[in-house]
Amino acid sequence: MRRRHLGDEAATQALGGAIAAVWTRPLAGVIWLQGDLGAGKSTLARAFLRALCVTGAVRSPTYTLVEPYRTDAGAVLHMDCYRLGGPDELAMLGLRDTPPSDALWLVEWPERAAEALPPADLVVALGTSGSGREAALRAPENGLLDAILNSMPE
Q1: Do the Cβ atoms of 122 and 27 come closer than 8 Å?
Q2: Three-state DSSP class for 128?
Q3: Distance from the CA of 37 to the CA of which of 13, 78, 124, 145 falls in 20 to 30 A?
Q4: DSSP state of 108
Q5: At 115, is the secondary structure helix, strand, or coil?
Q6: Within a 10 A sphere around the Cβ of 58, how many other Cβ atoms?
Q7: Which residues does 56 contact at the CB level (< 8 Å), separation at least 6?
């Protein structure tokens, strides 16, 4: 696990951009975004998508539960599991049509459906820290964490 202090919203956006910059193409896998309300999950997700050249509205999937995006690097499914009643409701979202081997799943509130989700290739846990935020990053591959953190501005 690696930690990084994020002093402001721009630092959270820089983390999202750094993750997008080093993620393997074509896009595939699962990223879990954890943290309380207001911790910066949607800010990071928006920055990640913008770094992949998504233009136009980047909607929060709070009510739709899944927002799909097409990028030159591949498909991204931005999900919000906060409103799910349980892991079994994840199956109703039609995710079988776009498995994480064919698209990147960017999942907010994964703990609401953890038993039904594939394991994460990257977990980003965000929390408040003074006037900023603290990011704790975990991945099975430490090289990924090094690449992400090394590509961020100090």
Answers
A1: no
A2: strand
A3: 145
A4: E
A5: helix
A6: 16
A7: none
